[in-house]
Write a structure and sequence with these properties.
Number of domains: 4
Organism: Saccharicrinis carchari
Distance between the termini: 32 Å
Largest sheet: 22 strands, antiparallel
CATH class of the largest domain: Mainly Beta
Radius of gyration: 26 Å
Protein name: Outer membrane protein assembly factor BamA
């Protein structure tokens, strides 16, 4: 394999990523670009690795035609015929979660159980929904803003689904009315996270705010949080959290943040102030008394801007942006353990980060992926981003360099998304505490046998450490590896995980609960810097179960499962566990660029 062919191919791709913007405006450049594509085809035929990259990044004319046809079916309704017409009225109707339907306007909750649930539920306020819109009355109608508004409403955790329609005004063809029907979810439910018990309301008083109570009986910790989302229709969210443990230590956090929530967003930023008291043993030697208390204060500020990179009014042009952002993180330890801290874990820190990248992101509508029949927004696009940083920690200064590339496409053979990340600190040109992270996810189009529906899902991920510290290690436990697997003795500096899942969707429901039987298999390897994955044991999990989902509820998915683990060091062999599985969220990649950060190594 010629590495120079691969490098040449990638350099040409990067140049095309920029040249394509100009080509849309200049026919001469467009003609030159077609010659470059012919050159790429030629290189791809000479090298298998290059051909794989070529097939991932470049569509053939046949694929483009199929995609155009397919996207016409799966994309949002076209509102182009209403473009530029004045919006007269925006009519919003919110529906209780039980017994109502978006399609059948005559349906209502008539049973005693439905009436009781709806009586206890506080519906979303019309103003709460209206504040999410990127459109206003007495303003020209914008089809792209309409599609984004529909998606942003459906994205809210307290919204099950919605219908969004545009109709011309009676007797006046120069104006339109917008009709929105929103079906709520039941928003108050208990949750668990580790040993913590959580009771939250995701739609407090129907305003889209979140009220949360947390109790951890093991460490006698009680906490309460409140988040005000979309303050003044600005998409700024503000949150406060207060917590108290058995030692009387108070934890406090206050934050305000606005993300790049849409390709149309021009600015984003946030500020977070936190004060925490902890007890930890990582990286320090225990004291004779066992006292390891420390206090940390954190200030985290960031801001970013986005500008449209391609001239024009097409959706592709308006969703392709050059995004830059900067961040300042300050960490201070007013109280820290009087122990040996060889890796400067408890040293004060100032960290300056900056990033710049190009993002293009659009969405298609689908059903029966992670939900059972309600509409889901599937992201497609690309992002390429570069991050640089400068850290002062204690008396040590070091630089940071990171990069990220991600893509997703939905050709006729299924949905494919991938991500490649690299990041490392540098001290005197020597790399340390770095990581390479690669992931590839895939699922098929929906298959149907009789009235049953099926999908096959595949998720794979590789993490490789670059000169990690001795306190930095990887495991294959639970969320970072195999669900339900837990071994404290199994660690490494490299990890490879793959999960296969066959998911079915039953055609019936019982009292609003839908069922999805599934089969799953996971395999994982841990490796070292010296030998990589050579001669390493493959740890596995075999599982079967059933998803039970009720779209009326915020905490809407329950599972019954049986898992078999042939080997689990520290726990034994041939282990069966009930309800240890959680079907993997197959990690849809999103292509917006947010707060600059380092590549995770965990």
């Amino acid at each position: 394999m010629s590495i120079w062919n691969v490098i040449t191919f990638l350099l040409i791709i990067l140049s095309l990523f920029t040249d394509r913007f100009a080509a849309a405006q200049n026919p001469v450049i467009k003609k030159d670009s077609s010659r470059v594509y012919e050159k790429l085809d030629s290189i791809a035929q000479q090298n298998k690795t290059v051909k794989i990259l070529h097939d991932l990044l470049i569509k053939t004319e046949e694929e483009k035609k199929k995609a155009r046809k397919k996207n016409t079916i799966k994309s949002y309704l076209s509102y182009s015929s209403y473009e530029g017409k004045i919006i007269r009225h925006i009519i919003i109707e919110t529906l209780d979660p039980f017994g109502y339907s978006l399609e059948d306007t005559t349906a209502d909750g008539h049973s005693l159980l439905q009436k009781t649930g709806n009586t206890l539920h506080i519906k979303s306020k019309k103003r709460t929904i209206k504040n999410l819109l990127l459109l206003q009355e007495d303003q020209p109608f914008d089809a792209f803003r309409a599609k984004e508004s529909e998606r942003l409403i459906r994205e809210k955790t307290h919204v099950r689904d919605l219908s969004f329609s545009v109709r011309p005004c009676e007797g006046d063809n120069e104006c339109v009315d917008i009709y929105i029907r929103v079906l709520d979810m039941w928003s108050i439910l208990p949750e668990t996270s580790g040993k913590a018990r959580i009771l939250s309301d995701k739609n407090f008083l129907g305003r889209g705010h979140e009220l949360k109570h947390i109790y951890n009986h093991t460490i006698k910790y009680y906490g309460m949080g409140y988040v005000v989302s979309n303050i003044g229709a600005s998409y700024i969210s503000g949150g406060i959290h207060l917590g108290l443990d058995r030692h009387g230590h108070v934890n406090r956090r206050l934050s305000f943040e606005r993300n790049f929530f849409s390709p149309l967003t021009k600015w984003a930023g946030g500020i977070s102030l936190a004060h925490h008291s902890h007890s930890d043993t990582v990286g320090i030697d225990p004291t004779p008394t066992g006292e390891r208390q420390f206090v940390v204060k954190i200030q985290d500020l960031w801001g970013g801007s986005s500008m449209q990179l391609i001239k024009g009014k097409s959706e592709y042009a308006r969703s392709t942006n050059l995004i830059s952002a900067a961040r300042f993180l300050r960490v201070r330890y007013p109280k820290k353990p009087n122990n040996t801290d060889t890796h400067l874990i408890f040293e004060s820190e100032d960290f300056y980060l900056g990033s710049m990248g190009v993002s293009t992101q659009r969405f298609l509508k689908e059903k029966y992926i992670f939900k059972f029949g309600t509409t889901e927004d599937l992201p497609i696009g690309k992002v390429i981003n570069l991050t640089v940083g400068y850290q002062i920690k204690g008396e040590k200064e070091r630089k940071y360099l990171g990069a990220r590339f991600a893509f997703a496409k939905y050709p006729p053979w299924g949905y494919l998304s991938g991500q490649l990340e690299y990041g490392s600190f540098f001290t005197a040109s020597n790399s340390e505490q770095g990581a390479v992270s690669m992931g590839l996810n895939y699922f098929t189009h929906l298959k149907q046998i009789g009235q049953w529906r099926f999908r096959q899902l595949i998720k794979s991920h590789i993490t490789i450490g670059i000169n990690p510290f001795t306190t930095d290690s990887l495991t294959i436990n639970n969320d970072v590896g195999i669900i339900g697997f837990n071994s404290s003795s199994l660690m490494g500096t490299r990890r490879a995980v793959i999960t296969l899942q066959t998911q079915s969707y039953a055609p019936f429901n019982i009292l609003g609960f839908r069922f999805g039987p599934y089969l799953t298999w996971s395999g994982a390897l841990l490796g070292s810097d010296q030998n990589g994955f050579k001669n390493r044991k493959l740890y596995q999990q075999f599982g079967l179960g059933v998803l039970i989902r009720n779209e009326n509820l915020v905490l809407n998915t329950f599972q019954l499962s049986l898992a078999f683990y042939p080997s689990m060091p520290g726990n034994g062999n041939n282990i069966f566990r009930l309800n240890s599985l959680r079907t993997t969220d197959f990690g849809l990649n999103y292509f917006n660029i947010g707060k600059p950060a380092t590549v995770l190594y965990k």
